Amino acid sequence: MKVRPGLVAAYLLGLAPPLCEALWPALELVQGRHAPFVLLVATFALAYPRSEPVERPAQSALYELLWLAPPLGLALGLDLARGLAPLRATFMTLGLAALCLGWSALAAAAARVPAARARYRDLWLLLGPGLAALALALSWVPRGAGDGRGARLFSASPLVLAQRAALPGGAEACTAFEFVLAFLVLALAALGTRRALRGGAA
Amino acid sequence: MSAWLALTLLALGDGNRLWWLEVEARGPLPEFTLDCGADGTTRVRGPFLAGERRLVVPVPVRAPLGAQGLAAQVLPRALEPEVRVVGWSAEQPDAALEREARTLLLRARPPLAEAPARAGRAEALLALCVLPLLVRLRRRPALASALGLALGALLLWRAAGVRALPRAVELLDVDLASGRALLVRAARDELALAGERLEARPDGLALNFEVSPDGGLAAVRAPGAELHGLSRAAAGELGPSSIEASLEAAWVRSPRGEWSARGPWPRGTPLPPARAEGGAPPGWLTGALPPGVGILVGRKVGGGWLRATAFELPHEESQNGY
Known about the structure:
The complex is a heterodimer. By secondary structure, chain A is mainly alpha-helical. Chain A has helices spanning 5-23, 35-45, 57-67, 69-81, 86-110, 114-140, 158-166, 170-173, 176-201. Chain A starts with a helix and ends with a helix. In chain B, strands 1, 2, 3, 4, 7, 8, 9, 10, 11, 12, 13, 14 and 15 form a 13-stranded mixed sheet that branches. A two-stranded antiparallel sheet of chain B has the order 5-6. By secondary structure, chain B is an alpha+beta fold.
């Protein structure tokens, strides 16, 4: 397994808030935010289109996710200690981790065929950072346009979903609909990439 | 009716757990303890040198009849034979507090706050120190993943068991009409005391005082108790254009009863205008306040709360019907 610099950066980013708060008692970094989901925002960012082929994509993605388990476990434990309901915490963490895993595996698989890599790059850019950028842009336009029920559609991007979940009270506000939508979009991206993979193989 | 009942209860001195007692200690003595039965103890730390010394020390007794009823109260007992309890001190600060700040004593006390749970240093440093090991194990990904998973589970279990730490809350309660102010400090389990009155909930808990050698108060400890320490304070200079402390967030109630958020109010600047955002002030600050007068409540920069009644709004706002 190749340890990508991004993986080490995500590990340190996830560990930084609880570590700094433990070392400097006067410091309050988390302030009601949900730290595990901050880490999962960074983990999803690691599913960027890869250039080097990976032998076993799913296994490699799983290894990377488990590699991040220490900061994730610490942040999740603190969230539970701060009062987040255990069932919701489990549901949110497993759901977001599965989304990160799916996208990472897809990125690793698409790296084997140039056409699939290009397809994945477009899909990832559109459905990941693209949707997040659109959500951000809409939150700047006059009050009310960027919030409400319509804003939940942007949770199709795991980047938006994890960021929304990380906000104070965000984990409590996330709905199953948002997860269904995010998994649906992942399935669509997988279908699109698979076609390109088959075409490239033929 | 309820106000009359509250005034009656206050006159009876039901809530105070801080009464002063005169004792004589014959040294040399390392320390001594006063036993107040079910109400708790006072431990006076020495050492006391050879000779006789008269001290006035606080005791956590409950006195349902207040300062007037102390004479009928059973005196606490000294556990050491070298110490003799003389009697109740003629000066009871709570009696003066009740005389001077009775209306302020009737107001709602600040609720207790808890600092959010934090990771232990050992757990956080363990997660940091294991990172180089995980990098070294890159050629054995299954082992690295298993190690990561095991450590993640351990840290999850350890962190989930962290208890939130109690955080002391401070409120400066001011009545601008009379120029009197009350400083209220709230904490759970333990409170450093320098006040004139101490209230503890739930009622009937045993309190343990630790007193320093000079007779001054050091701390009160009572696991599971909500403790409120009250003392008189200076009202300070407070008006529409000047406040003693900078406020992170301020809310103002007009004499008509309309609340408006004012946002941050830096020291020495005029009262900011009303703003749409800012929300409502915390409910505990605004309950049971006198009608028909202006009120200012706010959160101080650096911690603590301020509540001031008989606050005068700037002239132009009063003209605009605020």
